[in-house]
């Protein structure tokens, strides 16, 4: 399976020491040039920068539909990273797009793309046996992102685990 990732999931997974689990689920992860600049160049020395730069299973690609991409930038309140991630996912027909921003997730779904966020990734790592304590990972996620605790509690309960 292949995925296209925005910066937020890459940074959060790095902070939670779960970055390398991505490669266990996805054979290849693509990022746009814009996401590369956000994570590796502009945030050099911060969580995620070195991991993304060194991961040989992450490939940087340029969005081909530049006219559509530029028009979407002007029309949308989303950041350049989110927009380029959605465009790239559509262009390469990715299996999943990794996005945390709620508006970007909604747009991805409208565009017919399967969307997975950091919480969903942690859940997939847990279900795959790569993560032993989902509750603790969700607690750490709360500390490093703007996610609704009630959402995490619902996901835990769906798996038969006690809420946070």
Q: In total, how many domains does the architecture comprise?
A: 1
Tertiary shape: globular
What is the C-alpha radius of gyration, as a whole number of Å? 15 Å
* Overall pLDDT level: 94
Helical stretch tally? 10
State the major sheet. Answer: 5 strands, parallel
Strand order of the largest sheet: 3-2-1-4-5
Walkthrough of the structure:
There is one protein chain. The protein has a single domain, classed as 5'-nuclease (Rossmann fold). Helix content is 55%, strand content 11%. It has helices spanning 7-15, 22-25, 33-41, 49-54, 66-75, 80-92, 102-110, 118-127, 134-144, 149-158; strands at 2-5, 28-32, 58-61, 96-98, 115-116. The protein is globular and about 50 Å long. The model has no long low-confidence stretch (mean pLDDT 94).
Features:
10 helices; alpha/beta; Rossmann fold; 164 residues; 5-stranded parallel sheet; 5 strands
Strand and helix layout:
Blueprint: E1 2-5, H1 7-15, H2 22-25, E2 28-32, H3 33-41, H4 49-54, E3 58-61, H5 66-75, H6 80-92, E4 96-98, H7 102-110, E5 115-116, H8 118-127, H9 134-144, H10 149-158
Parallel strand pairs: 1-2, 1-4, 2-3, 4-5
Helix pairs in contact: 3-6, 8-9
